[in-house]
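Please check what follows.
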Amino acid sequence: MCIEYDVIVIGGGPGGYMAAQEVGKGGAKVLLIEKGTLGGTCVNKGCIPTKYLLQASHYANISSIASKYGVELSCKNVNMVKLMEEKTILLTV
């Protein structure tokens, strides 16, 4: 069985599902392909600032257990002011 489409949109993030919706409103037969949940990462898992802070917390967690693997780290604090400054700078890029 072969189904034909006028447009195939790959990715159901904010741009993808809106593009599919708009093309469909125009009468085209649209196929939207998304491997995860519609809405993309920003809608479902948090936008870039959240990802930045999650990655930073991941690094902090790794450093807290590093000695278990023979890696000795002398600094064990998080500079929240610097962390938030870097997050804000990331938004302007």
Observations:
- The chain has four helices and two strands.
- The first helix runs from residue 14 to 25.
